[in-house]
Specification:
Number of helices: 3
Strand content: 35-45%
Order of helices and strands: HEEEEEHHEEEEEEE
Radius of gyration: 17 Å
Helix content: 10-25%
Distance between the termini: 28 Å
Number of domains: 1
Structural class: alpha+beta
Largest sheet: 12 strands, antiparallel
Low-confidence stretches: 1-11
Mean pLDDT: 84
């Protein structure tokens, strides 16, 4: 059974990548779900994105486990360097090490976190550009293409209330950020997913879903 936000829904459709990024709730609270390998967690959470310090913190409260934290420092994310710590991160790292494909799964976990760090840097830049910086996103034949870090092009799509940003990592992996229309100010569901191109997206090795009820962007 999926999680359902209690927020009053007043739909306002997203039309541009800039609007999309403004409605991704990176600082707030609500319910969430994370899946990695055979590990599945449902939790309540509080998150905070400190733009000045370039640090994102997720505090989760998992039934029977209590509160655990993952903190991602993305100061040097553009240089392929993110610092991650916290008990919840260590739990995921241990799950990867216990896997029969431990090296590959650790690489996947680290790739996920590095790309999320880059997304945070890029998202902050795009939000700033709304106030006058050069536009990085262009519309061509009905498809939005955005210049991402390291000269990669991210593709933005909108369909039936679901907005998706796809960031290609290499010939094997795609990082997806998805937002389901919710209130006027933020999405009622945000999914951060690492997709293997050769597999069904629904069977992806790692993804985080957040259902914010409060947003402090």
């Amino acid at each position: 059974m999926g999680l359902v936000s209690c927020a009053h829904v007043v739909q306002k459709k997203t039309r541009t990548p800039e609007e999309f990024l403004k409605k991704i709730c990176l600082s707030g609270s609500g319910k969430g779900r994370l899946e990695f390998l055979s590990e599945k967690y449902r939790f309540s959470y509080d998150s905070s994105n400190d733009i000045k310090e370039k640090r994102w913190t997720l505090a989760v409260n998992v039934p029977l486990l209590g509160e655990e934290v993952v903190e991602l420092n993305y100061v040097k994310a553009a240089e392929e360097n993110v610092q991650v710590n916290g008990a919840f991160y260590e739990r995921l790292e241990d799950a990867a090490k216990e896997s029969s494909q431990d090296k590959y799964q650790l690489e996947m976990l680290n790739s996920y976190l590095k790309t999320f760090g880059k997304f945070l840097v890029w998202s902050n830049d795009i939000r700033d550009q709304i106030n006058g910086k050069k536009n990085r996103c262009k519309l061509n034949n009905g498809v939005w293409s955005c210049s991402f870090l390291n000269n990669k092009n991210a593709v933005f799509n909108m369909q039936m209330g679901l907005s998706t940003l796809e960031i290609p990592l290499d010939d094997k992996m795609i990082f997806k950020v998805e937002g389901n229309e919710g209130t006027e100010n933020f999405y009622e569901q945000v999914t951060l997913r690492l997709v293997e191109r050769s597999r069904n997206p629904s069977s992806s090795g790692i993804y985080l879903e957040m259902y914010p009820t409060e947003c402090h962007n």
